[in-house]
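Below is one such record:
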Amino acid sequence: MQVLGIDHATIRTPKLSETRAFFEQVLGLKAGPTPAFKEPVIWLYGAEGHDVVHLIEAEAEQAPSAVSSINHFALRIADYDKTVAELKAKGIPIQTESTPGNELRQIYLTDPNGVRIELNCPGRA
């Protein structure tokens, strides 16, 4: 077996509309073609036309805790400085850091469900 990378992240949420708005308005993902599942589902697509985040509507008692379920998931971004400026302009709380050796710059933010998102951009500060 050879794993090539992460295909997508799925979030079960009782806040479907609010979570969709966060990913569209804050991260610029776009809702797109979604299979006809039994429960409400939204697939969100990135700039290259690939579905990267799936949202599934769940009752509050059915939605797992983001803190106990997953630490974070990461998305690759093209422009670190532009992204930081856009997030700050939108009033989104962020944390920034670089990997040891400073080869990867990272931005951390949290969605309405408490899911931590890491935005990665290769290159030195």
